[in-house]
Design brief:
CATH superfamily: L-arginine/glycine Amidinotransferase, Chain A
Structural class: alpha/beta
Strand content: 25-35%
CATH class: Alpha Beta
CATH architecture: 5-stranded Propeller
Distance between the termini: 10 Å
CATH topology: L-arginine/glycine Amidinotransferase, Chain A
Number of domains: 1
Length: 258
């Protein structure tokens, strides 16, 4: 079986100019961010994920947040049309990369907008946040791309945070986790577990019950450990200043090998 791959993209030298929408801007240290990014990539590698580095986009401050540029289900890659105009140039090199990996390519077309950070896959259910960066036409095009593959697409409201996955992600057993003040409607999810910290709502499933998560959420890490999971903390403080989280910094291609 081929190794699991993770699309990653090196931070732009202009990272500090990245967009912020729901938080106050604070200074970003690009050199520290690069160190943290290296640590994040090392954590993926240590748990069996082979990094696949997409060509950097030095003129796109937010390009390190590669998750927003593509959504992959089974072998189909849906190239997004980001909701922020400054991010639209980020998708071309990502499209080239996933094509090299053998994905079938679909696209979101105008007037649709879709950010990958608004898409949460839980088994065969795909939740998509409709809010600031993803519009109704984007949701419709996501549904058209993935429902023929057997997915069930569920649109959910997002108004309190940048992306759906800024508010919620999911544990290996399908339980959706979130920090309640930032979740528009927890009742949308059949199984919802509140977590005590905002950054505790973000996990990347590394396999074997291991959860990649931000070091800024120690109480949430304790909660997950009490449930039998193994937290793998990484420091991503510079990316958190730009509303980034652990999910934003990679696209995991496990579905290609399912």
């Amino acid at each position: 079986m081929p190794s699991k791959k993770a699309l990653i993209r090196r931070p732009s030298p202009r990272l500090a100019e990245g967009l912020v929408t729901h938080i106050e801007r604070s200074p970003v240290d690009p050199a520290l961010a690069l160190q943290q990014w290296d640590g994040y990539v090392q954590a993926l590698m240590a748990h069996g994920w082979e990094p696949f580095e997409v060509e950097p986009a030095h003129d796109c401050p937010d390009s390190v947040f590669i998750e927003d540029t593509v959504v992959i289900h089974r072998n189909v890659a849906l190239i997004t049309r980001p909701g922020a105009d400054s991010r639209k140039p980020e998708t071309a090199a990502v499209e080239e990369a996933v094509a090299r990996l053998g994905c079938s390519i679909n696209w979101v077309w105008a007037p649709g907008t879709l950010d990958g950070g608004d898409v949460l896959k839980v088994g065969e259910t795909i939740y998509v946040g409709r809010g600031g960066r993803t519009n109704a036409a984007g949701v419709q095009q996501l549904r058209a791309a993935f429902e023929p593959l057997g997915a069930r697409v569920v649109a959910v409201p997002v108004s309190k945070v940048l992306h759906l996955k800024s508010a919620v992600t999911a544990l290996p057993d399908g339980t959706v986790i979130g920090h309640p003040p930032l979740v528009d409607d927890p009742a949308v999810f059949p199984h919802f577990l509140p977590v005590p910290e905002e950054s505790g709502a973000h996990v990347v499933l590394l396999g074997g019950g291991k959860l990649l998560m931000a070091a800024s959420a120690p109480k949430s890490a304790e909660l997950f450990a009490s449930l039998g999971y193994e937290p793998v903390p990484v420091d991503i403080s510079e990316f958190e200043k730009l509303e980034g989280c652990v999910t934003c910094l990679s696209v995991r291609l496990r579905d290609l090998y399912a």
